[in-house]
Every structure is written in structure tokens, then in C-alpha cells.
Automatic annotation (TrEMBL):
It is found in: Mitochondrion. GO terms for cellular component: mitochondrial matrix. Keywords: Mitochondrion. The keyword Mitochondrion applies. Pfam families: BolA. Acts as a mitochondrial iron-sulfur (Fe-S) cluster assembly factor that facilitates (Fe-S) cluster insertion into a subset of mitochondrial proteins. Probably acts together with NFU1. Belongs to the BolA/IbaG family. It comes from the Eukaryota. This is BolA-like protein 3. Interacts with NFU1. The keyword Protein transport does not apply. It comes from Eleutherodactylus coqui (Puerto Rican coqui).
Length: 104
């Protein structure tokens, strides 16, 4: 019973957080991660970071398009992003990474 009550409370909090987040500007975490990625991948034509945890900073989705990824397999591209964010990842619950090479 206690576990069910906790789950309902957490779900309610998450939904409310998501409602507030949908109208908010970027979070500090999004800005910090974007800055790290822009520094590590100066050739990037796109760096997009979205806090998908509702603004709590527990989970992020990253889209990055860079010439740095040329001739690299997807797993290698993701390893490069993970390496760049090794300190930030320690405080995260999850991370979605989408990488690509700019089209000519």
C-alpha cells in the first residue's frame, strides 16, 4: 500500500513538473550540457539538449550534428558524446543520444 501511494505521489509530481516545464525556458542543466558539447565538438552545426525529466535534470535527450562524426560508426559517435559528458553523466538517470553528420 505504501509503495502504491509513493508511486501515485511521484507520478502526480512528475506530471505537474512536466506541465510547468512545457512553458519554461531552458534549464541550467540544458545550457551547461550544450556548452560542454559545443566546446568538445566545435564543428557541430546542431547541438540540441532537452531535459526530458520535466526540468528535474535526471534525463536528457541530445541531438548533435557534426563533421567530427564523419567515418565513425554510430556506437563510436555515442562514445565520443559520452566521453565529453563523463562528469555530467554521473548525476543523470538516463541519456538519449542522437548523432549525425551534416548532409552536403
Amino acid at each position: 500500500m505504501w509503495a502504491a501511494r509513493q508511486l501515485i505521489t511521484r507520478t502526480r509530481t512528475c506530471v505537474l513538473c512536466n506541465l510547468r516545464r512545457s512553458f519554461a525556458s531552458k534549464t541550467e542543466g540544458e545550457d551547461r550540457i550544450a556548452e560542454v558539447l559545443k566546446t568538445r565538438f566545435p564543428l557541430a552545426s546542431l547541438v540540441k539538449v532537452v531535459d526530458i525529466s520535466g526540468g528535474c535534470g535526471a534525463m536528457y535527450e541530445i541531438h548533435i550534428e557534426s563533421d567530427d562524426f564523419k567515418q565513425k560508426r554510430t556506437v563510436q559517435q555515442h562514445q565520443m558524446v559520452n566521453e565529453a559528458l563523463q562528469e555530467e553523466i554521473k548525476a543523470m538517470h538516463g541519456l538519449r543520444i542522437f548523432t549525425s553528420v551534416p548532409k552536403p
